[in-house]
Amino acid sequence: MAAPTEPKQQEPETEEGKKNQVLENIQQLGQTTTPTTESNIFCLTIIGQVEGHMVLPPQNKTTKYEHIIPQLVAAEQNPKIEGVMVILNTVGGDVEAGLAIAEMIATLSKPTVTLVLGGGHSIGVPIAVSANYSIIAETATMTIHPIRLNGLIIGVPQTFEYLDKMQERVVRFVTRHSNVTEDKFKELMFKTGELTRDIGTTVIGGDAVKYGLINQVGGIGDAIRELNQRIEDKKATSNGGIVQ
User: Could you give the residue numbers annotated as active site?
Assistant: First the structure.
């Protein structure tokens, strides 16, 4: 009868193991160097299409809202995280999922900044304006259009009433969290002749600031600088106006 073998103890992580992990990260991320310092800023990226209750095809680049929500909860609870930066390059997506993400960002107790790079279209507009401060790249665009439904639609008055109420939810959120007026936002939303196959408006960089949707034109450096300033201001306020 063979003697029972003792459970194998886990070997401590070696320097060689750490190097292999770094190499694996480089291979996965496609970077020559990877950041190693711990940051007080949590960076959340929303790219591709916001995926809601329906699973999109595998070839679509998506951001799943069930992945975003736990990350925001964790950032809110983590005392080491002092600010949240949201980077957007999205074509839009599920309305309710997008509004859920926007509401969570808007209700965080920590300073927040959004940065629109490339595009913040459709339901990406409420997400872009949900933070304390919003920045858009000079070449980035935002498409504002009415809510559209895909698939089977029951042609009864209740369907159109529901669609209208959902539209009002988006309008109220955007106007409440930005400097654009309701009349101006609806004017951009229902403008005809600008989009090829639809009604709506595409605003670019400075136009988004001119209309009051976004606070300023800038980039990653401006976003980090603004967020750090807001973090310092919050610390000063919590210390009774005395910066230690």
Answer: 122, 145
| Buried/exposed 175-214: b ≥16 CB within 10 Å, e otherwise | bebbebeeeebbebbeeeeeeeeeebbbbebebbbebebb
pTM value is: 0.81
Rg (CA), the chain: 22
| Cα-based torsion angle of the residue sequence 231, 180, 214, 190 in order, rounded to the nearest 10 degrees | 140
Which residue type is seen at 104? M
Confidence class of residue 198 from pLDDT cuts 50, 70 and 90? confident
Query: pLDDT at position 243, please?
Result: 44
Q: Provide the pLDDT for residue 215.
A: 97
Question: HEC states along the chain?
Answer: CCCCCCCCCCCCCCHHHHHHHHHHHHHHHCCCCCCCCCCCEEEEEEEEEEECCCCCCCCCCEEEHHHHHHHHHHHHHCCCCCEEEEEEEEEEECHHHHHHHHHHHHCCCCCEEEEEEEEECCCHHHHHHCCCEEEECCCCEEEECCCCCCCCCCCCHHHHHHHHHHHHHHHHHHHHCCCCCHHHHHHHHCCCCCCCCCCCEEEECHHHHHCCCCCEECCHHHHHHHHHHHHHHHHHHHCCCCCC
Q: Using one digit for the tens of pLDDT, what is the confidence trace for 67-78?
A: 999 999 999 999
